[in-house]
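seq/struct pair 1
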Amino acid sequence: MQSLLTTAVETHGLATAWAEVMVPTLRAVGRKWESSDDRYVEVEHLLSWHISATLRYVYVRSVRKAVTGEPPVLLACLPGEPHTLPLEALGAVLTERGVPALTLGGAVPAEALAAAVRRVGPSAVVLWSQSRSTANLPLARHVAGTRWGVRGARTQSPVLLGGPGWDGDSDPGHPGLLRPRRLDDALRMLGVPECPGRGTTADGSGPTALGIGN
C-alpha cells in the first residue's frame, strides 16, 4: 500500500495524487464500512495511516524548500473536529511548492487558535470542518478579526473555510473570510504558484478535491 501511494505521488505530483487517488479511495472504503454494519473499519484506519505517513513524508522532504523569513499559512481543525488528513494534504502541497505552513492538527481549542494567530502572525489561516456540527462561524469571524503585529502596524490574516461542514454557509458574511471549494481554489486564494507540468487532472483542469467530504 505504501509503495502504491508513493508511486502515485512521484508520478502525478501530490496535489493530483491526493485528489484523484487518495480521496476517492478513502471515500470508497468509507462507503464500504457504512454499508457493512461497521465491518472493515480496520481497513479504513490502515489506509488513513498510510496516507498520513505519505503526506508527512512529503512535508518533511519539502520543508527545506519553503521560503525562510516568510510568515507561514496556519492550518487548524476547529474545536471538536478530529479529521486532519485534508489539512495534512494542504500543508504538504504548500511546502512542496515552497510556501511555509504550520499545522496545529485536530480539535484545536478556540483560545489556543486565537493565541497561535497572535503569536505566529500567519499569512493566512485555514480552518477545517468536516461536519456541520463543528463549523463555528462566530469563531472563524473572531479569528479573521484578530489583529497581530507590532503596535502601530497591526494587521489581520485572511481566513479560508475548508471542508464540507461549511456548506450551509454559502455567504460567510465577513470580508476576511474566504470559501474555497476545491484544492486549486485554496491554492489560488493563498497565492501559491502552480507546479509546472504536474498537478493536472486527465481533462487538463486542476485538482478538484479539497477534502474527503467535498
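seq/struct pair 2
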Amino acid sequence: MSALERFIHDLTDLTTAEDRLPDDALATTVSELLQELVTRPAPIPVEFTRRSAAHNGRGRYILHRSPTFTISSIVWAPGEVAPPHTHETWGAIGLISNRIEERRYELAGDDTLNPVDHHRHDAGAVSVLVPDDDIHSMHNLTGTDTVEIHVYGKDLTGLRRRRWSLNGDDMQEFASGKYFNC
C-alpha cells in the first residue's frame, strides 16, 4: 500500500467512525497524519505535482473524493495568489515542496477583514482550517512552483463560499470549479 493509499485508509476510518471527532479535533488529527505524508519522498504521483498547459498553467487535481472528505493536489505557479477566502468545512493543507505565504484574517462586523496572522511555510509544514476560523490567503512568493496537498471535510466543487479582494474590503460569494482530472 502506498503512503497516499494508507493516508486515505486512515482518513476513511477517522471520518466514518461512529464516535467521530468534532471538526476542530478531526482537523488537528488529520493535520498530524498529513504532516507524515508530506515529509515522505514522492508522497503523490508525479503527474499531480505539475501545472497543466491545458489549464492556463494551473495545477488543481483531485486525489480522492468520498462523502466524508476530499484530497487534492494544488500546484501554485510563481507569484500566484489566492485572495482571502473561506472553505466552509474543516481542512488541513500540507506543503510538499518549496515555500508559500499564508495570511489569516478575522471577519469584522461589516463583512470586511482584519489581518491577524502571517506565516511563511516551508516544505513539510501543515496548516489547519476549522469553520469560523478558516479565512486565509495564499501567495507563492518564490520563482518556482509550490506543491500542496489539501484535505477537506467536504468536496469544494460547487460549494458556496466567500472571498474578498486582496485588501479585504470587497466580499463576494463564489463556488469552486472542477478539478482538472475529473
